[in-house]
Write a structure and sequence with these properties.
The protein has about 350 residues and is α+β, with helices and mostly antiparallel strands. The protein is about 60% helix and about 15% strand. A hairpin with a 2-residue loop joins strand 6 and strand 7.
Length: about 350
């Protein structure tokens, strides 16, 4: 499959994203610490000065973060250059206003002038915008699509051959079931070849997962039992494509196939406030714990979640009492980002 080389277009980060907010907070505080240490002769003196500076930096930083959070939708609808100018104006206005209001308490005690404070704020904004722009380029659509397609290609070739062989064995004795299995297989590979950069509804992912489970059940028969606990699933929630299917594939390949007895895979999906929780549990066979591809597949999936949700998504793994559990949690988003249409 060829990769579409989509040109990178400048765009602001989502200032409502936890990862972006954390980078701003850490970056500004590190810059303030570096400036304080540079102005003093010793490291201890620099740290002491930064502790004093924090009485001004933290309120201003908090006000700017809150303002950017509120203005994020409006900034996202503007041209990149205009949005950057707007950010400069907002930050400088807040910094100047607070500096003027606090000058009788903070500024003279530290020997700083409002002009120097504004210059530091402008420099901090320029550096952070440049860093976030470079980071966005690192996750540009072309590179992002290449990474997503690497995961989409994870469907093992022998799975296709095994599934086709299972269908062939049904053609004469159960033509109707063979036809349904081929339709499920066609739907699965249609999704694999779709654009992996757009969000899909959780309902679509569950439907795909059920088709995949029916194909695997056709191949493994009574050895595979899938328990569905999805009554509380927020079907309207958005998530990256092909999140659930690799989890079930991993559970079958590493948890059910190596065993000699029937194995149960539990699929649990629920809404927890403004978060979506997905948990997949399968049997754990210690002697096959290091089968190739297990950790690689989960690491790849973790990277995909990071590409879409940044620091707001998590993927945890637990092994206990003969069970292997993968748990995913991400924000409950119901509206598609600007520029993303419904998948056909």
């Amino acid at each position: 499959m060829s990769i579409k080389q989509n040109a990178y277009s400048d765009g602001l980060p989502d200032f409502r994203n936890l990862g972006v907010t954390a980078r701003i907070l850490v970056g500004v505080n590190l810059a303030g610490l570096a400036a304080a240490c540079y102005a003093e002769t010793t490291l201890l003196a620099g740290i002491a000065r930064f502790s004093e500076d924090a009485a001004f930096i933290e309120p201003v930083l908090l006000a700017c973060v809150v303002a950017l959070y509120i203005l994020s939708p409006a900034l996202a609808s503007m041209r990149y250059s205009a949005a950057c100018a707007g950010i400069f104006l907002v930050v400088l206005a807040l910094t100047g206003g607070l500096a003027f209001a606090m000058q009788s308490v903070v500024i003279p005690a530290q020997g700083r002038e409002i002009v120097r404070v504004l210059a530091f704020a402008a420099l901090a904004v320029a550096v952070l915008l440049g860093y976030l722009r470079l980071r966005a380029k690192a996750y540009s659509p072309a590179l992002m699509e290449a990474r997503l397609q690497a995961l989409q290609a994870r469907i093992r070739p022998h799975f296709l051959f095994n599934s086709l062989n299972a269908v062939l064995s049904l053609i004469r004795r159960d033509p109707k079931r063979a036809e349904l299995a081929l339709e499920d297989l066609a739907d699965l590979f249609r999704v694999l070849m779709s654009d992996g950069r757009t969000f899909v509804r959780l309902s679509e992912e569950i439907a795909l997962l059920e088709r995949y489970a029916s194909i695997e059940q056709l191949r493994l028969g009574d050895r595979l039992r899938v328990s569905w606990d999805i009554d509380s699933a927020p079907l309207e929630a958005l998530l990256p494509p092909l999140v659930l299917q690799p989890l079930l594939e991993n559970a079958v390949y590493h948890g059910v196939e190596p065993g000699t007895e029937a194995g149960e895979v539990i699929v649990h999906i629920e809404a927890r406030g403004q978060r979506v929780l997905i948990r997949v549990v399968n049997p754990f066979h210690a002697e096959f714990a290091h089968r190739p591809g297990n950790r690689m597949a989960l690491d790849n999936l973790r990277e995909r979640l990071q590409l879409f949700f940044d620091a707001e998504a998590r993927l945890d793994i637990r092994e206990a009492d003969g069970r292997f559990e993968v748990e995913i949690e991400f924000p409950r988003i119901t509206e598609r980002p600007a520029g993303q249409a419904e998948t056909p």
